[in-house]
Write a structure and sequence with these properties.
single chain; binds S-adenosylmethionine
C-alpha cells in the first residue's frame, strides 16, 4: 500500500479490482466504483473513440480533466496493446496541483506498469513526448484552457465530476467552447446520460448516441456528423416527454 491518502483524497478499490480515489471536496469518486476505474476509462472513453476514429493515423485528444490520469494512460495502454500506428497527442487540464503531485503514491493498475513513468514525467515537466506520443498536462482551469484551441481536437473525453457537483464543465456555453476547439468531425465521449447534459450538446448541434455494452452502465457519445457505430438517441422524443428539462447554463 502507499501514502496517497490525504485530508482531501482517499484510495478506493473499484469493481474491476483497479483503485480509484474519493474526493472529500467534491464528495464523489473519480470513477464509477461499480463499473471499475480502468473499465470505465476503456469502455466509456477509449474504445468508443477509437472505434469511430479507427482509420486515423494521428489524433488530437482533449482529456477533461486529468484527475488520476486514467483516460490518458488507458489511451496509451490501448495503443500499445493493439500495436497501433496512430500517433496520439493528448492535452489535459487539471485544477488540482496537490492531486497531481500525490499521484506518485497512487496504486495504478498492473496494466499501466510499463507506462506509468509517463505520469512521473508529467508531474515533473508537465509534458511527455516520444516518437508516437505527445502528452501535455496543463495545471489550471479547463474553461480557460479550451479557449486556446480552434478547430484542433478529434476526440474529447468529457470526464469531469458530475454535472450536479461540477456544473461549470457541463453547460451549453462550455460545450459551445468545446465545439469551437474541435474539428467538425470530432467525437465527445462521456459517462453522463442525463438529459440536461445531452441537451447542452444537442443545442450546440450535436447528435447524441448511446454507448452500451455488458461491461458497463450506459454512456453517451456525441458527434456533429452522423455515426453508424452507435444507436442514435431520439432527442425530439425525449424533449417532448420532458418539456421542462433545460440544459445547464453558465
Ligand atoms: C472525475 S475527475 C477526472 C478523472 C480522470 N479523467 C481520470 O481518469 O482519472 C474530475 C477532475 O476534474 C478536476 N477539475 C474540476 N474542475 C476543474 C476545472 N475547472 N478545470 C480543470 N480541472 C478541474 C478535478 O480536480 C478532478 O481531478
Amino acid at each position: 500500500m502507499n501514502n496517497f491518502n490525504t485530508d482531501l483524497h482517499t484510495m478506493t478499490k473499484s469493481a474491476d479490482g483497479s483503485y480509484t480515489a474519493y474526493s472529500k471536496e467534491y464528495d464523489e469518486h473519480y470513477h464509477s466504483t461499480k463499473d471499475g476505474a480502468l473499465n470505465e476509462s476503456l469502455y466509456k472513453h477509449v474504445y468508443p473513440a477509437f472505434k469511430i476514429k479507427k482509420d486515423f493515423q494521428e489524433l488530437n485528444i482533449l482529456d477533461i480533466c486529468f484527475g488520476l490520469g486514467f483516460n490518458t494512460l488507458a489511451t496509451i495502454y490501448y495503443l500499445k496493446q493493439t500495436s497501433s500506428t496512430c500517433r496520439a497527442n493528448i492535452y489535459s487540464p487539471e485544477l488540482d496541483e496537490d492531486l497531481i503531485n500525490s499521484l506518485k503514491d497512487f496504486s495504478f493498475p498492473a496494466e499501466f506498469e510499463d507506462i506509468k513513468h509517463i505520469i512521473f514525467t508529467l508531474i515533473q515537466d508537465g509534458v511527455y513526448s516520444d516518437t508516437s506520443l505527445h502528452v501535455e498536462l496543463f495545471l489550471g482551469d479547463a474553461r480557460e484552457y479550451i479557449k486556446k484551441f480552434d478547430d484542433f481536437f478529434d476526440v474529447v473525453y468529457q470526464d469531469a465530476f458530475s454535472p450536479s457537483t461540477n456544473p461549470i464543465l457541463w453547460t451549453k456555453e462550455y460545450f459551445a467552447d468545446i465545439k469551437k476547439a474541435c474539428k467538425s468531425d470530432a467525437v465527445i465521449t462521456t459517462y453522463s446520460t442525463s438529459l440536461p447534459t445531452r441537451l447542452a450538446m444537442y443545442e450546440n448541434g450535436y447528435n447524441l448516441y448511446i454507448n452500451s455494452g455488458e461491461n458497463f452502465r450506459k454512456a453517451t457519445v456525441a458527434s456533429l456528423v452522423e455515426l453508424d457505430e452507435f444507436e442514435l438517441v431520439n432527442m425530439k422524443h425525449k424533449i417532448s416527454c420532458n418539456p421542462d428539462t433545460k440544459p445547464l447554463r453558465d
